[in-house]
């Protein structure tokens, strides 16, 4: 919530209105959910079906992998 409030406070009149509309129904009293997964980027080509290959001029070939976080 602090990041959202900070962004709204720093926005100009048009962006501020758009942000207020976007977050109109946000429950400000609800606690954030704990993350169940994380997205990892690793260098090199994808080798598994559950990996997504990527490429960029600065990093070259890499892949994304969704990893379940331990609940313990």
Question: What's a concise summary of this model?
Answer:
This protein has 72 residues and is of the alpha+beta class. It folds into two domains: 1-32, no CATH class; 33-72, no CATH class. It has helices spanning 2-10, 13-22; strands spanning 37-43, 51-56, 60-68.
Name its key features:
72 residues; alpha+beta; 2 domains; three-stranded antiparallel sheet; 2 helices; 31% strand
Write a structural description.
The protein has 72 residues and is α+β, with helices and mostly antiparallel strands. It has helices spanning 2-10, 13-22; strands at 37-43, 51-56, 60-68. Strand 2 (51-56) and strand 3 form a beta hairpin. Helix 1 (2-10) packs antiparallel against helix 2 (13-22). The protein is elongated, with a radius of gyration of 19 Å. 0% of the residues are buried. The mean pLDDT is 93.
- Helix segment count? 2
Approximate strand percentage: 25-35%
Q: Helix/strand-derived class? A: alpha+beta
Order of helices and strands: HHEEE
Contiguous uncertain segments of 5+ residues: none
The coarse silhouette is elongated
Strand element count: 3
Main sheet: strands, sense, barrel = 3 strands, antiparallel
Write the layout of secondary structure elements.
Elements: H1 2-10, H2 13-22, E1 37-43, E2 51-56, E3 60-68
Helix pairs in contact: 1-2
């Amino acid at each position: 919530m602090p990041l959202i409030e900070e962004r709204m406070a720093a926005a100009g009149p048009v962006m501020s209105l758009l942000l207020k509309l976007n977050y109109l129904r946000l429950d400000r009293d609800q606690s954030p959910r704990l993350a169940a997964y994380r997205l990892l980027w690793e260098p090199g080509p994808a080798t598994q079906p559950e990996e997504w290959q990527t490429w960029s001029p600065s990093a070259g070939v890499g892949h994304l992998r969704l990893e379940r976080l331990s609940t313990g």
